[in-house]
Specification:
Layout lengths: L6 E8 L4 H11 L5 E7 L4 E6 L6 H10 L3 E4 L40 H4 L7 H22 L2 H28 L6 H14 L3 H33 L5 E6 L2 E6 L8 E4 L9 E5 L2 E4 L1 H4 L5 E3 L4 E2 L4 E2 L4 E5 L7 H14 L3 H32 L3 H14 L3 H20 L2 E3 L2 H8 L3 E5 H5 L5 E7 L5 H12 L5 H12 L7 E7 L3 E6 L2 E6 L1 H6 L7 H10 L3 E7 L2 E9 L6 H10 L3 E5 L4 H11 L2 E3 L4 H14 L2 E5 L5 H6 L2 E5 L4 H5 L3 E3 L6 H35 L5 H20 L13
Length: about 750
């Protein structure tokens, strides 16, 4: 078997309401031959794995998942119809919510993977129907008991229990065949059967009903968490006005292609990532980046799918496929981030693997030791042991971390704060120091040319023309500033070839057949590119907070260009917030020390200047020895430092670099979003600690009260499902948490 025959496959899996469900799917599927790297995301309902089709067919994967009681369909497709085993009069398996088990024909429009099927009211789902059925059977049994003899009432409770527990028993048997003996369905089946054997039929029926209610509540709670993630996809309009000749035609936005031209009316959402061809308007980017103030965009400027055109009609050229627009990439990032599990989550998974068998062993001891050793009543201790079994299910504990992580990822994505998974969130909460790049991070990244100082015998036009020629192929902010100045002065750019960057020094190229450089004054001095008074003059300009570059040819200085890039408006507030949170800050820049001092001094924090990429890398290693460092940069020049830091965060409004490099991204280009991201991470970890304490605390209390006979079976099942619901609802609070607010923690 070779990796060349392996394919990455994805499915939508419905009916999963807790982390235990994902564990069942993973363990069952990874047992199949030719299957590896199985990942299941609870909140996005996605199963992905590496598959060798020559060994195991995709149909085998789908069959395995269906046997567990979940629905499955290939991503974007409907699954074939499958019948369900249901006892006469019983509802489908509880996990078959939203039609998971009985997959409809695609033509019916009832695809279980479709939003319409997912978002049905609880009473329209199979779990809701099971609640209604078991509740009705329980009520009928009570009526029979009241109106007839006790024996008739007893048998009516037995019937209610058996009908309600039958689907659970089927699932328990299927998971047992797949090597998973410790499941809540198995424990429920044992507890209900044991209760019937000791004559507690009424309580057994009540427990089955309460379990069904708990399943519905879990589904509702998890559904709320999923809605936060699904809402991202709804930001992109479903249709677009495509230009056809001199007119327009309404087409599905998903069918747009690169190069199409669309018209966007005032008040409409932009249907695709693109570039404005005609018109100027305020663009509300808050749906994408969380930026509340509309930005004025004109011809040639980029716009994002999902943004709102607020003022005037625009003609926009589509620059990215619908599957690759900013919103789609954010959704993919959130989906992939859910699979990047936090260390705490991995620990809890290992702990629950020990915890559940231990509870079962304790239950066996509770059932057997008192009657055998102390001659106690068997019925009493069997009852208590069965209750202990139900309390022992670790559902609440296992979901305590992923529910919080998913809510935090969704809350952050809505505000332009992206983190690639639980591990990043956990690391961000422990950050003690933040290292900032300067240009484009602490500063606006849009420097302007302030001074043109040609050498003796050189005209300003020649100085600017050569500089623009050398910088013509560069996307660096300083290069763009020089090119803008040349364009504004209508200076013709000469012929250029063989341009290449000199990392940390500048750029060289062949301009009009001769070598030319735009470089730092220190490098120019070494290369003979400065006139006699240029170096002191450059120093004086740098003391004013300007960035100075020297332009020269071989042995011939052409002059100096001074530029200035102002700090972002919120940079000072961000540094103060970090200080209030007990987090240090340092600026790492390749700029000269005097310019760096002017920027950092105004903001009141440390700096290291004149740094090459390898110097930034060494600086991050040095800072990491003293604590946990977060590096904020542009994701390209700072790539080594971003990777070396405990966490690397890229700045950028939806660019590929911002979304795909480093460990996270800040989409709004706000420095104040750095402390906001850390606040979100800290709030998430606090929420996780609350969830773990709640789950374990309730278990501990009811374990003790059950052993001493204070609480019974129905309280035990409430303790289990109730804890799961409480933990999930607590995690959902993070969806409303706004880390970008005025608070400073």
């Amino acid at each position: 078997m070779t990796g060349e025959t392996t394919e990455r496959r994805e499915w939508t899996v419905t009916g999963m309401d807790c982390a235990a469900c994902t564990t069942k799917v993973v363990r069952a599927v990874e047992r199949l031959p030719g299957v590896s790297e199985v990942r299941v995301a609870l909140m996005t309902e996605r199963l992905s794995l590496n598959l060798m089709p020559d060994i195991t067919q995709p149909e085998a994967i789908e069959g395995t998942v269906r046997k567990l009681g979940f629905g499955i369909a290939p991503m974007g497709q409907a699954a074939p119809r499958k019948k369900v085993f249901v006892l006469p009069g019983a509802a489908p398996t509880p996990a078959a919510a939203d039609g998971e088990h009985e997959h409809p024909d695609p033509a019916s429009g009832d695809d279980p993977a479709a939003p319409a099927a997912r978002d049905r009211s609880w009473h329209q789902t199979a779990k809701g129907r099971l609640v209604s059925l078991t509740g009705a059977l329980l009520a009928i049994a009570w009526l029979i008991e009241l109106m007839t003899t006790g024996e008739a009432g007893y048998w009516s409770f037995v019937a209610a229990c058996l009908i309600g527990v039958a689907p659970l028993a089927k699932r328990a048997i299927e998971t047992l065949r797949m090597g998973q003996p410790f499941t809540i369905e198995g424990l429920m089946t044992i507890a209900a059967g044991g209760a019937l054997l000791i004559g507690a039929a009424e309580e057994a029926a009540l427990v089955v009903f309460l379990f069904a209610v708990g399943e519905v509540l879990e589904g509702v709670a998890v559904g709320k968490a999923r809605q936060g993630i699904r809402a991202l996809a709804d930001l992109v309009p479903k249709t677009a006005l495509l230009e056809i000749g001199k007119g327009t035609r309404t087409i599905p936005a998903a069918s747009l292609q690169i190069g199409h031209v669309v018209r966007v009316r005032p008040g409409d959402r932009i249907p695709a990532d693109g570039e404005i061809l005609e018109g100027t308007s305020g663009i509300d980017e808050s749906p994408v980046t969380g930026e509340s103030i509309p930005r004025n965009r004109g011809v040639g400027e980029p716009v994002f799918a999902g943004s709102i055109n607020t003022e005037a009609a625009l003609r926009i050229s589509v620059t990215k496929e619908p599957s690759d627009n900013t919103i789609a990439r954010i959704i993919r990032l959130v989906e992939e981030a859910e699979e990047a599990r936090a260390p705490t989550e991995r620990f809890i998974d290992r702990f629950s693997g020990i915890y559940m068998p231990a509870i079962i062993a304790l239950s066996a001891l509770v059932i057997s030791v008192p009657p055998l050793v102390f001659d106690q009543d068997w019925t009493t201790w069997i009852y208590r042991g069965l209750a202990l079994l139900l309390i022992g299910c670790p559902c609440a504990l296992v979901i305590s971390v992923p529910a919080s992580i998913a809510s935090a990822l969704s809350a952050g994505a809505r505000r332009g704060l992206l983190m690639k998974g639980g591990a990043v969130i956990e690391a961000a909460a422990k950050v003690t120091h933040v290292a900032f790049d300067k240009t484009g991070t602490l500063t606006r990244g849009v420097p302007v040319v302030i001074d043109l100082l040609p050498a003796a015998g050189v005209e300003q036009e020649e100085l600017l023309a050569v500089a623009a020629g050398v910088e013509g192929g560069s996307s660096h902010p300083l290069a763009q500033a020089i090119l803008r100045r040349a364009e504004a002065a209508a200076v013709p750019v000469p012929e250029v070839r063989a341009a290449r960057a000199l990392p940390g020094r500048g750029v060289e190229a062949i301009v009009d057949g001769e070598p030319a450089w735009v470089a730092s004054p220190s490098y120019a001095a070494e290369a003979g590119g400065l006139a006699g008074t240029d170096l002191p003059q450059a120093t004086a300009l740098e003391n004013e907070g300007k960035t100075v570059v020297a332009v020269f040819r071989t042995g011939r200085p052409l002059g100096l260009i001074a530029l200035r890039d102002e700090p972002r408006d919120d940079a000072d507030a961000a540094i103060r917030q970090l200080s209030a949170m007990g987090i240090g800050a340092t600026m790492l820049t390749g700029d000269n020390p005097r310019t760096a001092a002017a920027i950092a001094g105004g903001l009141g924090f440390d700096f290291r200047a004149g740094m090459m990429p390898e110097d930034k890398l060494a600086a991050i290693r040095d800072l990491n020895r003293a604590g946990s460092v977060m590096m904020i940069g542009d994701g390209i020049n700072d790539a080594p430092a971003l990777k070396e830091a405990r966490i690397g965060i890229a700045m950028g409004s939806g660019t590929d670099v911002a979304l795909e490099t480093a460990d996270g991204a800040i989409l709004r280009d706000r420095v104040s979003d750095v402390p906001a991201l850390i606040r979100l991470a800290r709030a998430t970890m606090a929420n996780i600690r609350q969830n773990v304490a709640l789950a374990l605390g309730l278990k501990a209390v009811f374990l003790v009260t059950t052993i001493f006979g204070i609480t019974g079976l129905w309280i035990a099942i409430l303790a289990d499902t109730g804890a799961t619901v409480l933990v999930t609802l607590n995690a959902l609070r993070l969806l409303r948490y706004n880390p970008t607010g005025p608070q400073v923690r």
